């Protein structure tokens, strides 16, 4: 008897395509990979909030919370999705990454 793997339900969801918002194809590729990583997709589709901040104002600048919203939208709506938050906040995401994982951030700088 075959048992389904954890994350199998989310992995079967096709999800929406992403609209290129002007030189955002690489960012869209990363978002598609995150969206279709089954354990992450299942976590994002659960009722649990992944936001690291409590207040509404902080939630608007939280890349993790925004990614959860994006993944939910991409997997539960039909038609193309515009990843506007991510496109507008790439510098914020980069700064947050530099704080959390400085080795990775410095490796990417030229």
The average pLDDT is 76
Largest sheet: none
Helical/strand content category: mainly alpha
Gross geometry = globular
- The sequence of SSEs as H and E is HHHHHHHH
How much helix is in the residues? 55-70%
The number of distinct β-strands equals 0
Instruction: Give start-end ranges of low-pLDDT stretches.
Output: 1-8
Instruction: State Rg.
Output: 15 Å
Q: List the total number of helices.
A: 8
Give the strand content: under 5%
Terminal-residue CA separation: 53 Å
Descriptive notes:
By secondary structure, the chain is mainly α. The chain contains 8 helices and no strands. The termini are far apart. The protein is 58% helix and 0% strand. The protein has helices at residues 8-12, 25-35, 38-45, 56-59, 63-76, 84-88, 90-100, 102-107. Residues 1-8 have low confidence and may be disordered.
List keywords for this structure.
110 residues, disordered N terminus
Helix and strand arrangement:
Blueprint: H1 8-12, H2 25-35, H3 38-45, H4 56-59, H5 63-76, H6 84-88, H7 90-100, H8 102-107
